[in-house]
Amino acid sequence: MTQQEREQAVTDEVVASFAATSDERLREIVQSLTRHLHAFARDVRLSQEEWEAGIAFLTRVGHLTDDKRQEFILLSDVLGLSMLTVGINAPAAPGATESTVFGPFFVESAPEVPLGGDIARGAAGTPCWVSGTVRSTDGSPIAGARIEVWEADEDGFYDVQYEGDRSAGRGRLHSGDDGGYRFWSVRPSSYGIPDDGPVGELLAATGRAPMRPAHLHFKVDAAGHRTLITHIFVAGDPHLDSDAVFGVKESLVVDFAEREPGTAPDGRVLDTPWTSVEFDIVLEALR
Ligand code: BEZ
Ligand code: FE
Questions:
Q1: Which of 10, 22, 168, 174, CA to CA, is 20 to 30 A from 38?
Q2: Quick check: helix, strand or coil at residue 33?
Q3: Is 193 in the pocket of ligand 1 (CB under 6 A)?
Q4: Which CATH superfamily is 81-283 part of?
């Protein structure tokens, strides 16, 4: 038996050990995972020390993960696995708003705000008026779509990254009868993903930056439509071409207009500069 045959025999034996898995999809996944994992080890001629370093790395990822910090998702994000999965599952419908990575900072029970309300609730930053319409892929407006939004403040931190349970820079609202939505927030800022753990070590060791371009997250749900998870990115941000988690899509880069002090579309009078952005959302109708 040659060295190559000996190595292939190990892979074949492990693949065969899963042959009796009654759940067909699970069988497909574990057998394919085995083949690709073994191919990777053969490809790089993995040494014993490297195997140990890999196990130690994953152990640190696990130890850091809890209900507040998801280092495994962060690892998936910086390896591009999250965006690849988004791409594999992207809606086929032409014209639907594109999806991007979910990220770890969504909170289930964000405060409800009325149309035109302010989601900043103390988050620091330049006021930003966000508006648009939610439509279906057939062009009809969607009333009552649930829109959840969240973002980092001007210092680049989400509320959940601060001590205490303050909720700021996030909220939930519903589109009006004409599909329209609008709210106040703050202009999003670029920020570094958490890099004080093993994922940060990986980025540093490979000369990669942790920065994400400024963005505002959306999760939009409406009956009869596929849930949309996306963000809008601020046009002109210097990190658009080097997003640490590969989430940027051209269709999601939008202009945040700089405004002089004065009266905003809802009649609010501002004595400081502010910004505004318009973003129409198209949800894929489910057949
Ligand atoms: C975010 O945009 O919130 C995010 C996405 C991936 C990793 C870290 C943060
Ligand atoms: Fe984010």
A1: 22
A2: helix
A3: yes
A4: Aromatic compound dioxygenase (2.60.130.10)
